[in-house]
Amino acid sequence: MKINNVVVIGSGTMGSGIAAQLCNANIPVTLLDLKTEISQKAKERIEKSRPPLLIDKSKIHGIKVGNISDDFKVVSEADWIVEAVVERIDIKHEIYDKIFKERKKDSIVSSNTSSIPISVLSEKMTEVDKKDFCITHFFNPVRYMDLLEIVKNEKTDLDKINQLQKFCEVDLGKGAIVCNDTPGFLGNRIGVYAMQVAMTEAFKMKLSIEEADAVFGRPMGIPKTGVFGLYDLIGIDLMADVLKSFIKELPEIDDFQIVAKEIPLIKKLIETGYTGRKGKGGFYRMNKDGNKKILEAINLETGEYFPTKKIDIKSEKVDLLKLINREDKYGDYAWAVISKIIKYASSLVPGITDKFNDIDEAMRLGFNWSRGPFEMLKEIGVSNFFEKIDNFENNKFLEDLSNTKDENFYGERQKYTEIETLGKIKSKALKLDKNNSAEIYRFKDFNIVEFTTKANALDYDSMDSLKNATDKPLIIINESMQFSAGVNLTYTMNFADKGDYQSIEKFVKYFQETCKELKYSKYPVVSAPSGLTLGGGFEVLVQSNFVASHTNIVVGLVETMVGLVPAGGGCKEMLWRWSQTEEAKKDPDYAPLKVFDIIGYGKTATSPVEAEPLKYLMPEDKKIMSRNSLLQVSRSILDENKDFSSPVEANFKLSGKPLKDKMVKLLEKLYNDKIILDHGMRVGTELANILSGGETTIDKILSEDDLYKLELDSFMRLIETKETQERIKHTLSTGKPLVN
Length: 740
Ligand code: NAI
Description:
By secondary structure, this protein is α/β, with parallel strands linked by helices. The protein folds into three domains: 6-180, NAD(P)-binding Rossmann-like Domain (Rossmann fold), CATH 3.40.50.720; 187-404, Orthogonal Bundle (N-(1-d-carboxylethyl)-l-norvaline Dehydrogenase, domain 2), CATH 1.10.1040.50; 422-558 and 602-647, 2-enoyl-CoA Hydratase, Chain A, domain 1. Helix content is 45%, strand content 14%. The chain has 32 helices and 23 strands. The strands form five sheets. Strands 3-2-1-4-5-6-7-8 form an eight-stranded mixed beta sheet, sandwiched between helices. Strands 12-13-14-15-16-18-21 form a seven-stranded mixed beta sheet, sandwiched between helices. A three-stranded antiparallel beta sheet has the order 9-10-11. Strand 6 and strand 7 (147-152) form a beta hairpin. Helix 1 (13-24) crosses helix 2 (36-48) and helix 30 runs antiparallel to helix 31. It binds 1,4-dihydronicotinamide adenine dinucleotide. Residues 9-15, 33-34, 38, 68, 84-87, 91, 95, 112-114, 137, 139-140 line the site of 1,4-dihydronicotinamide adenine dinucleotide (NAI). 1,4-dihydronicotinamide adenine dinucleotide (NAI) is lined by residues 9-15, 33-34, 38, 68, 84-87, 91, 95, 112-114, 137, 139-140.
C-alpha cells in the first residue's frame, strides 16, 4: 500500500513536528487536536519555528487542521494515522477506539509514545486491528533528528512494517530502525543507561563533573556536552521521570535498576529548582560576579558550586584502546563506563533486536555518538576486551564471542537499510590515504574524501586530501553531522598569534589552488553536503562540478561575521552565478551588487529551497530527503557523466572604481545608521574592492586568477588587523559574532 494521505492526532511538540516532516515530503496531512484552535496554533508554531521545521515555508498549506469531534472523518481517507497525544493510556485507548471504528481497511495506525509498550497500547484492540498497529517513535525536533524507531510485536503484520519502514526511510528521510516491544525501545534504553553509568561511576570514583564530562565526551566519540552537561540540557526533573518509568517497566534483575537508583543530590537539586538549563541551573550554573558571568560546577560530594576548572585529558583524537589503558583515574573511569555499556548493550541482543549493529546506528542517529557500543568493542579489539573484562555471566553474546574470539565479528554496518550508504561502502573500499583532517577511499573507479575534523573545519591537510584525490572521479561526502563549518579558525589564529602571516597566505593560496583543481580536473567532482556547509565548506561545494545536497543543510558565506572575506573562490563563484542572470546582461553592476548584499550580510539558508534564490544552490543540484541516499545519488551522477569534460574557464567584466564607490555609499548609510561600526566599514570596503574588480575598468577582462588574487589580498589585509583577530577570538570563545 502506498502512503498518500496521513492524519496526525495530537498537535503538540511531536504531532506538529511529524506533520511538518510529512509536509516536507509533499504528503498531504491533517493535524487534529481537541479543538481546531489548538491545531491551528500548532500550524502557526510550525511556520515560526527556529530552526525551521519546514524546508519550504510556502508549502504550509499542505497541512490541514481540524478537531477530533467535527473532522474525524478524515481518518477514513488516511493510509497512515499517527497518534501523538499526551502520554496517558486512558486518552490513547479512547483515541484508538475512535480510529479503528473510522479508519479504512488496511491502513496503518501508529503511536508516537515514548514509553508505553505496544502490548498495553493495543490491549483493547481486535486481533485484526493489532496487525495494523505499531509504534513510530520519532525524536524531537522531527526534521533534524534522523532516528525513528519502529516498534513491532509478535502480532504486527511484518509486510506492513516493511512498507512503513521504506516510506519513512525514503520519503521522510529517517534512519528507520525496526525493533521489538521492550521498555524504552532501543535508543533510550541504551542511551539513558549509558548516561546513568557515566554518572554513577563518577560519583563512585570521586571524579569532578568536569572530569567526567571531559572523558565521557569527545575522547569517547560522544558529544562534548558529556553526561552532566547533557543532564542539564534535557532537564534533571525530566530525567528523573524517565528513570521512574524504566524502574517500573524493567524486571528487578535488569542491570538498569542498579544505575537508576535515586541519588540524594539529584533529589535536592530538583526540589530547589535546579532542574538544568531551563531552571536556575543544574550541575552547572551561571553565576554573576558584578558584571562578569562565571560558569560554576557543583561539587558532587558537598553540593557546593565552584568556578569550573578546564580539564584537558590530552586526548585529541578518539583512541579507545589508549583511553581505557591509561594508568590514571581517567583510564579507569573510561574502562568502567565503556565496559558496562558494552556489557549491557550486548545483553539485550536478541531481546530488543537481533541485528546488533542497529543499536550502534540508533546511538549515532539518536544520541550523536560517533560509534555505538559494538563498534567500541570492535575498535578496542575482541581479545583486548576479554583480557580486561572480569565477568560476563548470562550474556550469551559475549559468551559466544569469548569462544570464537572473532575479531571480525562485526560484519556489515547499517543492516537496517538496503541503501548502499557511505557507512557500508567504507568497509568495502580501499583506504588510500589518511591524514589528520581527512581520509581518502577508492571504491570501484572513483574516490571518496571524507573530512574527519571537529565540525569538519578545514585546514591544509583537508586541502591536501582533496588535491590528492582528483586522479579519479571524486565524491566529497561524510558521515558526521556537518559537511564543513568552514576554515579552521583556531588553526588560522595559531599562525596569526605568532605573527606568521606567511603561513596563512600559503594556506589560502593552497585552498584556492585545490578548489581550482576540483573545478577543472579531468574527472567530475561531486559534493554531497548535509548540515553546516559554511564559508570554506561552501567554497569546496561551489567549485565542485555537481552537488547532491541533503535537505537539511545550513549553507552560506559567513566570513564577514569574523571580519574576513571569502578567499577560496567564494566571491568569484557567486559573482559568476549572478552574472549569468538576465538582469546581469542588462546591467553590469547587477551581479556584484547582489553578491555584495549576500556576502556582506553573511546570509545563510537553512534548506535548498532557501538556498536557491541566493544561488548558493542551483536548480540542477540534486536535493535529497534521505541522508543515507546521498552516496547513491552522487554515484548515479558520476554514472551519468562518464563523458564529462571540465567547464570552460570563467571570466569577468567589472566596473571598478565607480562600482566600488556605489558600494561604499551603501556602507556609509549603514555606518551612519550605526548598523555597522568602524571595522564593519573596513571589511565591507574590502569586499567592495573584490566584487568591483579592484583596479579595473568595464572594458577589461578579468580571469578567475585575477579574482582569486583580489580575494587573497583583501583576506590578508584583514587578517592582519587587530579588529578581525578580536572578532575571530570572540566567535571562537562564545560562538557569537562581535560587532566592532
Ligand atoms: P504535547 O503535550 O506537546 O502535545 C500533546 C497534544 O495532544 C496537545 O496538543 C493536546 O491538546 C493533545 N491532546 C490531548 N488529548 C487529546 C485527545 N484526546 N485528542 C486529540 N488531541 C489530544 O506532547 P508531545 O511532547 O508532543 O508528546 C506526544 C507523544 O509523543 C507522547 O506520547 C510522548 O510520550 C511522545 N514523545 C514525546 C517526545 C518529546 O520530546 N516531546 C519525544 C518522543 C515521543
